[in-house]
Amino acid sequence: MSQALRKSKRAPTTPATATAKTKATNTNVSSPAPTGTVGSWEDDPETAVGLTVPTPDLSKLPLAFSFPTGGPPPAVYAHGTYEFRYWATAAALRRGADYWAQRVPLTQWQGGPSLNVVLDNGFELDANYNRTGLNFFHGPGVTGTVFTCESPDVSCHEVGHAVLDAFMPELWGVASTEIAAFHESFGDISALMSAIQIPSLRTAVLAVSDGNLYTTSRLSRLAEQLGSALRAQDPGLAEADCLRSAVNSFNYQDPMTLPSAAPLSQLSSKPHSFSRIFTGAFFEILGVSLAAKAANPGAPTETEFLAVADDLAGFLVQGLKWSSPVVTNCYAQVAANMVIAAQADPTYSSIARGVFVGRSILSLQSASSLPMMAKVKSLTAPAKSAMAERVPLPMVGLPASQYGIDGVLFVEAAAEPREFDVTSAGFNAEPIAPQSGTAAAKAFVDDLFMSGQIDYGTVVDPERRLVRNHKTKTHALVKIDGGARLERRLFNCGLCARGTCH
Fold first, then answer.
1. Torsions phi, psi of 37, nearest 5?
2. DSSP state string for 265-320
3. How far apart are alpha carbons 420 and 340 in whole angstroms?
4. Is the pTM of this model over 0.70?
5. Among 406, 28, 425, 45, which residue's Cα sits nearest to residue 251?
6. Whole-angstrom Cα distance, residue 222 to residue 161?
7. Rounded to whole angstroms, how far apart are CA atoms 453 and 487?
8. What single-letter DSSP state applies at residue 413?
9. Which residues have a Cβ under 8 Å from the Cβ of 234 and sit 6 or more positions away?
10. Which residues contact 56 (CB under 8 A, 6 or more apart)?
11. What is the dihedral of CA 368, 372, 377, 379, to 10 degrees?
């Protein structure tokens, strides 16, 4: 047993209680409901706060999981054992999937009714979602081995990718930094929302925040153990006290103006770096809204905390439903639609509008146009709901000789017709003209090649390839007539901040 995990045997164990606003989902009636309890973590192994929960039903529909066969019987096992990891991961994944199944209109995962789970896919400080499954790994920690499946922050982040892909599959292969970054932000929001479902965690976070939720805490610090492991290898691979923090001061910038790599105190065009803008705004809205909605703003209760978080998640999901055109500057589109979704409650809508404008995600001009957008949407929503399935996204051809490709590289572009003229703002508060889908695609593809995330396959001769020490290939080239097509393989945890894996 590793020293890193042995310390947690002294951790307190908090029994889970029923949470408010629960809603029953369909279950697989062919399987009996599991009985007993299992051990898990409240949030992350580094905080070492244990939790006992009812045995999760992995076959529960609409979002079932397929775990390794021959798993251990449900029980509360010792921390640091395979048996504990098995059920700790199962409990976190079930909690995350159940949370979104209540809010997102899904009938199954993108790849089918059940999502495969690989608890240990080899030696690497990483985790990924590849449309058919969730893959976790192990690697060296500060005092022992780290298993990425064991952290609810990591597993529920990957669930977020899977949920968003099932809900909006058109976002999967888009060649766009901002859309890829939003996918990562939704993963981090999924980790936050899943953690908030635990009453004892809500109580603990409120106890140390003095009513100010938007401050660094066990909740805002995502994947602390993994962050520690990465910093031990290179301080530039993770933030000071976690992998990524939901508390930050980043404002929107055009990703095409950012460097492809930067210190963690700055933004880069890498999706995991750029994702922090939207995640920070979402968490800030949550904190300000809780203070505004609480009967005692200086001492909100854990039930008020849960209710506000659920409301905000609902606005996000509704905003995504309405953000149908796939375009560049998607942050502004989602933000505008979230504000509109919250318009029935002036407190929520004014706070969301204020935070999004304050972080330059929405320009002042765009924010002022939202009432008119809301009126138009109220008239067009019934017609849109009756529309057929979405057509494939536009494909654009990029000159490809600089990538070593003979012919043209074809990619999916964020180039659908814009529904509304909603934009973000620059440093001078003036609206930023969104880049064309083709320009955004080229910048995104350039970054992929520069960071070594492309599997060349047989498309490019070895002597023309760019090789870096990047084990994880998020994209692959597929040879077609006239050149090649770029395909996404997976979304990974983004543990390699500088573009190289260790």
1. -130, 160
2. TS--SSHHHHHHHHHHHHHHHHHHHHHHHSSSTTS--HHHHHHHHHHHHHHHHHHH
3. 13
4. yes
5. 425
6. 16
7. 12
8. -
9. 498, 502
10. 34, 38, 87, 90, 91, 93, 94, 95
11. 170
Give the Cα separation of 317 and 395 in Å (integer): 27
Q: Which of these, 322, 235, 258, 277, lies nearest to 497 by C-alpha position?
A: 235
The first and second tokens of residue 88, run together, are 């700790």
pLDDT for position 501: 40
Q: Are 145 and 82 in contact (CB under 8 A)?
A: no
Taking alpha carbons only, the member of 501, 494, 435 closest to residue 129 is 494
pLDDT in tens, 25-36: 333 434 677 889
Segment 309-339, tens digit of pLDDT: 999 999 999 999 888 789 999 999 999 999 9
- Specify the higher pLDDT residue, 265 or 409: 409
Label residues 131-151 b or e (16+ Cβ within 10 Å = b): bbbbbbbbbbbeeebbbbbbb
Give the chain's mean pLDDT. Answer: 89
Q: Do 362 and 335 meet the contact criterion of CB atoms below 8 Å apart?
A: yes
- Chain centroid to Cα 447, Å, comes to 20
Three-class SS of residue 497?
coil
Q: Which residue has the tokens 């669930």?
A: 159
Helix (H) or strand (E) holding 196: helix 177-196
**Residue 56: cis peptide before it, omega within 30 degrees of 0:** no
Helix, strand, coil fractions of the chain, as percent rounded to 5: 40, 15, 45
Q: Which two tokens stand for residue 448?
A: 């992929």
Q: Which of 473, 491, 501, 493 is nearest to 155 (CA)?
A: 493
What are the strands of the beta sheet with 475-480, ordered from one edge?
A: 395-399, 408-412, 483-488, 475-480, 454-455
Tokens representing 360 are: 């330059």
Torsion of CA 248, 251, 257, 263, to 10 degrees: -20
Containing 207, the helix (H) or strand (E) segment is helix 199-209
HSE toward the beta carbon, residue 482, CA cutoff 13 A: 8
Q: Quick check: 260 and 246 in contact, CB under 8 A?
A: no
- The amino acid that residue 151 corresponds to is S
Q: Which two tokens stand for residue 383?
A: 């017609």
Q: Do the beta carbons of residue 445 and residue 409 sit within 8 Å?
A: yes
How much of the chain exceeds pLDDT 90, in percent? 79
Residue 66, phi then psi, degrees to nearest 5: -110, 110
Minimal CA–CA distance to 339: which of 141, 358, 328? 358
Q: How many C-beta neighbours within 10 Å does residue 262 have? A: 16
Distance CA 75, CA 37 (A): 6
Please give the Cα distance from 409 to 460 (Å, whole number): 12
